[in-house]
Amino acid sequence: MKRLAFFFFIVLGMGACSPNLDPVDPDRTFSHAAELVEVIGPRPAGSEGSLVAGQYILDAFELFGLEDAHFQDFTAGTLACRNVVATLAGTSYPDAVLLLGAHYDSIPLGAGSADNATGVATLLEIARYFGENPPTYTLRFVAFDAEEIGLLGSAFYYEQSVMSGELADTFMMLNLDVTDTNDSLPYCPLVTFILTTHPPATQAFERAKETMMPNSSLVLPVAPELVRALFGGGFQSDIHHWRDEPILLAWPQAFGETYHTVPGALSEIDKTGLALSTKMILEFLRALQDLAPEELQVGSPLLDEALVVGFRRLQPEQTEDRGRDVAQPRPLQIGPQIVLS
Fold it and tell me: Is this structure's pTM higher than 0.85?
């Protein structure tokens, strides 16, 4: 793929940020993460924990009224793995597919709290919402297995979508990998939102941003060198397989310090921040519902520009649900030799 210049923007919330979290309930969203981290525990690909987690996700999909909920079996060497797939058919544009993916496996020694019980929790809360509020586009929900050992579950799903023709109907891939808030940035934002720039999609994003951060301001351009440091070798997440496709790509993610930690305790997740992240993503998806498919079609890979947006930092007294002290900001290591402090 031809690498084009990126332009990142960091939007800082400079005023008060107290959005109405309804219809995203913090306790309900957090409960999914708690189930994965504290009840099931480590979920490395091919393990008993992975099997139990996959069943939990499948049961949730069915409970929320999703259609054709099933396991997609594949092997990774000697490991028996499975993605979990379900669908909500679009009421207006059933042949236009928006793919939402989150990996549910963890590293062997950790319970995968931030990475990626948070992404699964967001995926399930969005599935619940659209199960009650049918989407105009078809939504395909996929919980990927074996991400931590080489993005293998998403690679298998991508290959199958090419063979089945589903990819030809897909206009967007939304990757949910680490959707907890970020406590390491010293200059306000908590959650980043990476979105390939496309006027109708970015307008939908602006609508979502205004809902969540009506007083945000101060747009800072970031040098293309920073983007190359981040993604010069490709995405280190499931979205990687779709990077050359002429579709929209979105990745809400926290640049935090708590992923891949051992034991990966539940206290690493900020309940309020997880709900804020999920609400922001949901508002973006709701805004997309007002656009016709032709407005979201693109003719070439759109890795030339991106938006990165952050929530305003939570104050220490607002972080009662977590075990770590986040009052003191820490420098953020973004690239191999690039530090923002």
Answer: no
